[in-house]
Design goal:
5-stranded antiparallel sheet; 13 helices
């Protein structure tokens, strides 16, 4: 089907538009598409009329496989139109229905028909406006929904941002807490290790020397220890004013050109000795008065407050270690002085040489319990004794002197070594029930080549004969002196020949913690047997020294050592 209209006036254009709309309606074109077609056609026809001339409108309905029915609208200029030669204007709409009977071939000039067409156009416009209203409402709904969605997205973003910020803050707090915990663990570990190093020594000079090694360079760039009564040279050395204030007040002082902000530390002006370097002056406290002042310079610009607290605590522990070491040294000096004062000179009886050695312990307060003695009895016999009081220090030294005095008093009445030890046992048991001792006594008589000896819980004497043979005199000994037990200590005898040498000693010479006492006695016997008789005859004092050297070379000497050599002169 095809229809054509000639258009040269507005009336022609109106009729063509109406015809097009009626034909589209007849083919079931939806009102919205129909209105779009009519509006587009009207706009183009208005342009055509403006240009002038005659224009041709063609409407054609075609059917194509796969495309359905289409209504084609074509406007072309006639030969006399101003726009002759222009390309045709085309548009097409789908026709969902077959043509109805009222399609009509044209539009009569009846006003009623025109009015009806106008009303129909208004109905289409109303439908379009209704659709437009629906679309506007839909757009408004979607706009509101979009707005709410945007608000929700913004709120979600805000919540996510807040959650992310909170998570970052939590992570930062956790890292900070972990770092602080690690630093605290590091400080505590250092404090424990440093305390162990400081308390491992009982030499206060050694403790002072160890402080810089512990603190430099991690916690201080330099360390100075000022001990008030250490030596005259240190008292003459100038010290920062802050150190003097710390010594006078007993409070730590921080000297710098800026506040330190260190807990428990007073701020002072910078030191005139070193104005460009901050100084931390910490007193070395004791129960009575400070021992001195520890002055430190920071490893960097300044100290961390927690490090300063740790340094103050370390200084307190170092002060305790130094004070304890000084007390130990004082007591050890007293005990050693008393011990040596009580070890009298040895007699020189005819035909018998004596050599004694006493070596105090080098580790710990293990001085005062060991002693040796030699004296004559009224009948001319010589008593040689070596003993060891349990315990150490001044108390042991005092008890040793009392036993020595008691033994000399008992020996005036005569009596064999076993009888003397029995009386000493009773004396000690009644005088000091909680204190014990060991001892060995040997008696030499100038007119009798027989050695009489007795031991009470003591290492056995070692006898070397002139021919180099060595015997350990380990016949049945008595128990320790002073134990809560009645005992009669037996005498033992052995015949001596000229050139024989008897060694009496304490357990500090032969006993080692890792190996016990028996291997040490065997080493002593072997060392004594290695001497030649001529050496012992000529130089018993030098022989005593040469005997001690190999026996003590493997020992840290944590106990006293006593050695008494008794040598019978050779036959000639």
């Amino acid at each position: 089907m095809k229809r054509t209209w000639q258009i040269s006036t507005v009336t022609d254009a109106a009729r063509a538009r109406i015809a097009t709309a009626r034909l589209a309606a007849a083919y079931g074109v939806p009102p919205l598409d129909r209105t779009r077609l009519a509006a587009a056609l009207s706009a183009h026809l208005r342009q055509c009329l403006t240009k002038g001339g005659v224009w041709r409108l063609s409407l054609a309905v075609t059917r194509a496989p796969g495309e359905g029915t289409l209504l084609h609208t074509v406007v072309t200029p006639s030969h006399d139109a101003a726009a002759a030669g222009e390309p045709p204007w085309r548009t097409a709409v789908a026709c969902p229905e077959s043509a109805r009977a009222d399609g009509g071939d044209g539009v009569p000039e009846d006003p009623a028909v025109l009015a009806e067409a106008l009303l129909g156009a208004d109905e289409d416009t109303a439908l379009v406006l209704e659709k437009l209203t629906e679309q506007e409402q839909l757009v408004a709904f979607h706009r509101e929904e979009l707005h709410q969605t945007n608000q929700g997205v913004l709120a979600l973003h805000a919540e996510l941002d807040a959650a992310g910020r909170a998570q970052r803050e939590a992570f930062a707090a956790e890292r900070k807490a972990r770092t602080e915990a690690e630093n605290a663990r590091r400080r505590l570990t250092f404090l424990a290790d440093a305390s162990a190093v400081l308390t491992a020594s009982l030499n206060h000079d050694e403790i002072v020397r160890r402080l810089p090694d512990l603190l430099v360079p991690e916690y201080a760039r330099s360390v100075d220890v000022w001990l008030f009564d250490h030596d005259d040279q240190q008292r003459q050395t100038p010290h920062p004013a802050a150190a003097v204030v710390a010594a006078r007040t007993g409070r730590p002082q921080y000297a710098a050109d800026h506040p330190g902000g260190l807990p428990g530390v007073d701020d002072q002006p910078p030191s005139a000795l070193e104005p460009g370097r901050p100084l931390l002056c910490i007193p070395l406290p004791t129960r009575r008065a400070p021992l001195g002042v520890l002055t430190l310079s920071p490893p960097g610009e300044r100290w961390d407050p927690d490090d300063a607290v740790m340094l103050i605590e370390l200084t307190r522990r170092a002060s305790i270690a130094i004070d304890n070491a000084r007390r130990f040294e004082h007591n050890r000096d007293i005990a050693e002085t008393l011990q040596r004062a009580l070890l009298t000179d040895l007699p020189a009886p005819p035909g018998l040489s004596l050599a004694a050695r006493y070596l105090p312990a080098t580790h710990g307060l293990n001085i005062g319990g060991d002693w040796y003695d030699a004296f004559r009895q009224p009948d001319g016999s010589l008593i040689a004794v070596v003993g060891d009081v349990t315990g150490h220090g001044l108390h042991a030294a005092v008890m040793m002197s009392q036993l020595r005095t008691a033994l000399r008093a008992y020996a005036v009445d005569g009596g064999s070594p076993g009888r003397l030890l029995t009386r000493l046992h009773m004396f000690l048991h009644h005088l000091q029930p909680d204190l014990y001792a060991t001892a060995v006594i040997a008696r030499f008589h100038p007119d009798d080549p027989t050695l009489t000896w007795a031991a009470a819980g003591h290492p056995p004497p070692v006898l070397r004969t002139a021919d180099g043979r060595v015997t350990t005199l380990d016949a049945k000994p008595g128990a320790m002196l002073g134990i809560p037990l009645r005992q009669e200590i037996d005498d033992h005898t052995v015949r001596l020949t000229p050139g024989s040498t008897l060694a009496l000693y304490t357990d500090g010479l032969v006993e080692r913690r890792a190996r016990g006492i028996d291997p040490g006695i065997e080493r002593l016997a072997a060392a004594l047997g290695a001497f030649r008789s001529a050496e012992l005859d000529a130089d018993l004092e030098g022989s005593a020294d040469r005997l001690l050297d190999p026996l003590l070379s493997d020992s840290e000497r944590d106990d006293d050592v006593c050695l008494l050599l008794c040598h019978l002169d050779g036959a000639g």
